[in-house]
Specification:
Length: 329
Amino acid sequence: MASTDVIRLICAVIFILLAAIAVCTKRRYRKKLLKKIVMPALVSIFVFISTFVVLPSVPSDGVADIPDSSNFQVHFIDVGQADCALVICDGQTMLIDGGNAEDSDLVYAYLVKLSIDKLNYVVCTHAHEDHVGGLAGALNYATAETAICPVEDYDSRAFESFIKYLGNTDITIPEPGDVYTLGNANFEILGPVEPSDNANNTSIVLRLTYGDTSFLFAGDAEVSEEEDIIMSGRELESTVLKVGHHGSDTSSSWEFLSAVSPEYAVISVGTGNSYGHPSQSVLDSLTVIGATIYRTDISGTIICESDGENVFFSVEHNSINATLSDIAG
Ligand SMILES: [Zn+2]
């Protein structure tokens, strides 16, 4: 029986009860009946409606309602010392960064392999080349429905190439609190909260939610942007954290990691990079927080699937290589 049917039935019972009292009882008993029977009955009915009729929009096991046919994956594509993540949910897609310009062919080939010629969202977290560079390759194969970026202009060849391949798609500069849907998932913009002269601190930080699982993509946000985001009071706790700025110690303050409290941390970082990323102090903090750490320099491309309750990781460089091939097609 639908919720509305239950409410109609309850209203009918109340009406009949009140009508019966009005018609059948003597006036001196009505007040007593109202006090002893009708009012307790109304309170009970109210509690029943609150508990079993109104609240069932939140399922009893606490898991948000996701159809059995729904699916969700995040591909943390190994682009060396750079960032690139592809989110696929129910046939809708979002590419967050594209690696360096030299990764254009790799990103192009990845999309071709998965036959993704339409990206619902392209997010350029910020204008540095290791994030915007390979987006031109992606856009050489796929069209972008919505392009999200903190700036419309930036003086670099990589950014100009990104704009060129976007074609007629305008850049959307989002505000914190903006929410977008991606299949049965949705994501909220957390930052940047304040403007900054440091491009890293203009990083679009977003939190993606799918059922009871969540993913926080921190771009290259450094400590000051992390502080702004904490102060904004938005929900940060997430199942998976794409660690900020390739694991640099200029990001991932203890306060931020505590607020996110990730079960899993993914670091997109190049083997033997000259920056010394990831920082040992960040690795130590993540370990103390209790996060299982995945690194693209060790594992190659990392794929995370969610069923809405739990997440499952597959990595390129280990004994479950075959699993990755199966997922990536
Ligand atoms: Zn970067």
